[in-house]
Amino acid sequence: MIERRPIAGIACALLLALSPGLSLAQPVASMEKIEADIAAGKLGSIASIVIEQHDETVYARAFGNAKAAKLHDIRSAGKSITALAVGVAIADGKLASVDVKVWPLLGAKTQDAYSEISVRDLLVMSSALDCSDTDKKSPGQEEKMYRTRNWQAFALSVPLADDYARDARGFGRWSYCTAGVFLLGRVVEAATGEPFDAYVQRRIFDPLDITAVEWRRSPSAEVQSGGQVKMTSADLTKLGRMVLDGGRWKGLQVIPESWIKSMLQPHRQVGQHVYYGYLWWFWPYHSPVGAQGSWMMQGNGGNIVAIFRDYDAVVVVQAANYNKSNANAHSVRIIEAALAALPAPPPKP
Predict the structure, then answer these.
(1) Are strands 303-308 and 292-299 parallel, antiparallel or unpaired?
(2) How far apart are CA 85 and CA 83, in angstroms?
(3) Nearest residue to 315 via CA among 64, 31, 59
(4) 3-state SS class at 313
């Protein structure tokens, strides 16, 4: 069991859980109630919860057979790490900007709209690829990629969407595409000359003393930078704190603050109260002091790393409710209980 201390005081399922009108009067369960519901199986399979405030862990607990140091598959929450890697590659001078064109950089044959697909397009899920993970008939749907040996070859061969067009801001339609995020990992490799996992380890994980990480790989050994990385809840909490502190960790600027600000911008609105930045999600949670907006790492199964600026807090939920329609609703309930358990932030002037 993870140490426990007293507290003072995907895309479709995600939108279904959060699209209804936001009522600030919604009652919030206590953490004791949450623990009882987890024990009774009412919240499905919850592996662990960590609540951190002011850089101190105030609650940490594992459930069921989970252990404190156990690596857990956070699925698409790993995409947010890829966004951090892109920012570091730009800061290191290895990648010019988010405007770099992907197909030429990867040495792929360019024609038509392929040559115009940029790093930014992939960061905001708005490329010209006919790719939607929520549509099993989509040519670029992620399960089709997993059935191939070489994922880069698959992603680069996804056909273009016939109706693709950019709006006044330069964005195409929003379409959730894991294959595109996988390509961002290949972009980082091509730009830095290092394997994606080695670069992330050296530039992001090592400064945070994160050593236990397990990446999924393709049959040809390509790192899955589009998600399905296994990490501990404690290490995810470190990532959340580092991002909440503007890219700083223990006085060290790991990620440029300018990149954190760019990454955590509502580049696209994808649902009622739901926005998307550079591979990070945003939506509001209920709290005792009203709606609290949160930028998050979010993955299938209810895996969430949520940061709250007003509370100066990070809440991590690791769950294994994979492919369940209520997965995110369960995790949202846990996070709202965590906010209710924390001291309320001071009123804004």
Answers:
(1) antiparallel
(2) 5
(3) 59
(4) strand
Instruction: Say if residue 333's pLDDT is above 60.
Output: yes
Give pLDDT, residue 218: 98
CA atoms within 13 A on the CB side of 63: 20
Q: Identify the burial level of 297 via C-beta atoms within 10 angstroms of its C-beta, where 0-12 means exposed, 13-18 middle and 19 or more buried.
A: buried
pLDDT of residue 28: 59
- DSSP lists the bridge partners of residue 48 as 62, 318
Q: Crossing angle of helices 31-39/327-341, nearest 10°?
A: 150
C-alpha–C-alpha distance, residues 296 and 286, integer Å: 15
Q: What average pLDDT does range 6-19 have in this prediction? A: 39
Say whether 62 sits in a helix, a strand or coil.
strand
Helix (H, G, I), strand (E, B) or coil at 226: coil
Strand bridging mode 56-62 / 72-73: unpaired
Answer whether residue 47 shows pLDDT above 70.
Answer: yes
| DSSP string for 127-172 | -SB---TT-TT-TT-HHHHHTSS-HHHHHHTPPBPTT----TTS--
The answer, yes or no, to whether residue 5 has pLDDT greater than 50, is no
